[in-house]
Design brief:
Blueprint: E1 13-21, H1 23-26, E2 37-43, E3 45-46, E4 49-50, H2 63-69, H3 71-75, H4 77-83, E5 89-96, E6 102-104, H5 108-115, E7 122-129, E8 134-139, H6 145-153, E9 161-165, E10 171-174, E11 180-182, E12 186-193, E13 199-202, H7 218-222, E14 233-234, E15 244-248, E16 253-259, E17 262-266, E18 273-286, E19 289-294, E20 298-301, E21 307-320
Antiparallel strand pairs: 1-2, 2-5, 3-4, 5-12, 6-13, 7-10, 7-12, 8-9, 8-11, 10-14, 15-16, 16-21, 17-21, 18-19, 18-20, 18-21
Length: 322
């Protein structure tokens, strides 16, 4: 197939969650139909939840189909060499009406051995925060399996975990092994390795509509947890019309762009680029193509598109593989 290159948007993949709400509709204008929608998977190749193109001549094609037929053009030469025909990242928006469960994600080694999966290093950008919202992230002080298990059994786990007030614009970077939970009242943009492996440690003893508690994974988590105190909150610059580095890790680089008018972007063809519109509106102009994006939109720019213009007034996350 001959790709007529243009930036790609995808159909929403909406997920009801026991902790979800309605902000994905009221704030991000997603087409939710329930009052417990917790997630929209913006860009995914997780089995059973593969994104489908929503715009242009490729509408209806799955992301996996495009990668299979044009790996270098979509992924980029460097990404294809490293990951083969796998799309290595997963992009989401989350609405936490209630606290998420306290959980942890395994590293690449454990995830490969146990689940034949990537690990799950991730980052959160807080888009909206109710007053007094907070993030549970890591231990207050370095801990141990024994202390962790005792507090888990006594239902006092939260007492030894770090509790950080969160506001719009805050960024948290969670390496695998970091115990964490998104707190109630937050809308978050999430960027992570392509993985749906989560070990749930504690769920506040809540039950679903049928009166059932969700499964816990206490034993699996023991060897996955990093019991050391970690620094997860990221500080970053906000220079206008520039790509300000927020996170630069082996799995992805995320920049923050405060767009005030026009930015010319030049790429090498080594990696795809994803833009998540956090606030405002902007356009991508490329070779006669012009498309507008609003708050809550996510767009994949294929790697073979190596020169384009961002134009508008917006706050944008720019993500790629270094």
């Amino acid at each position: 197939m001959n790709l007529k290159s243009y930036p790609l948007q995808f159909e929403p993949i909406l997920k009801d969650r026991i902790w979800g709400g309605e902000k994905l509709k009221t704030i991000l204008h997603k087409p939710i139909v329930s009052n417990i929608t917790g997630e929209n998977w913006e860009l995914s190749t997780v089995e059973g939840d593969v994104s489908v193109v929503a715009n242009g001549v490729l509408k209806g094609k799955s992301l996996m189909e495009l990668i299979d037929e044009m790996p270098n053009e979509i992924l980029g030469t460097k990404v294809y060499k490293r990951f083969g025909k796998q799309f290595p990242l997963l992009f989401k928006y989350l609405d936490a009406r209630e606290d998420l469960s306290i959980q942890v994600h395994p590293n690449d080694k454990l995830a490969k051995e146990r689940h034949n999966s990537f690990g799950k290093t991730e980052m959160w950008y807080v888009m909206q925060a109710d007053p007094d919202s907070r993030i549970i992230v890591g231990f207050k002080e370095s801990s141990s399996k024994e202390e962790y298990l005792k507090n888990l059994e006594d239902k006092t786990l939260v007492s030894i975990l770090d509790d950080v007030k969160a506001k719009a614009g805050d960024v948290f970077f969670l390496e695998t092994g970091t115990v964490h939970a998104i707190g109630a009242g937050l809308v978050v943009a999430e960027i992570q390795q392509t993985s749906d492996i989560t070990y749930r440690l504690y769920d506040f003893d809540r039950v679903d509509a049928q009166g059932n508690k969700r499964e816990l994974h206490v034993d699996l988590a023991l060897d996955a947890i990093n019991y050391n105190k970690t620094d997860t909150q990221k500080k970053y610059e906000r220079k206008a019309n520039s790509s300000n580095v927020v996170v630069d890790c082996p799995y992805f680089t995320t920049n923050f762009i405060p767009l005030e008018d026009k930015v010319e972007v030049a790429k090498t063809g080594e990696t795809f680029t994803v833009y998540m519109c956090i606030e405002g509106n902007f356009e991508i102009e490329y070779n006669g193509f012009k498309q507008s994006y609003k708050k809550g939109d996510t767009v994949l720019v294929p790697a073979e598109i190596n020169a384009f213009i961002l134009n508008g007034k917006a706050s944008i996350l720019e993500i790629y593989i270094s």
